[in-house]
Amino acid sequence: MCLAVPGKIINVTEEDELLRQGKIDFGSIVKNVSLVCVPDAAIGQYVLVHAGIAISVVDEAEAKRVFEYLDQMGELTELEMETS
Fold this sequence. Notes:
Blueprint: E1 5-13, E2 21-26, E3 29-34, E4 46-50, E5 53-58, H1 60-73, H2 76-82
Antiparallel strand pairs: 1-2, 1-4, 2-3, 4-5
């Protein structure tokens, strides 16, 4: 199943608008993600990430609610396995 996972932006690099990337914190897992689709996203905001691309900005309460649902469904183990 393909899901978008919420994460918090902890760093942004803006070398080129088409290459804009960020470090995203998914709980205890940090990954580099493309921020091209969310050009106004900033450090401290939460984004939904699908296939390595942030697709939308969400508020903190929504991000936490989605993260809890994913944890209950057991979908977070897939994210953890990708970092191994």
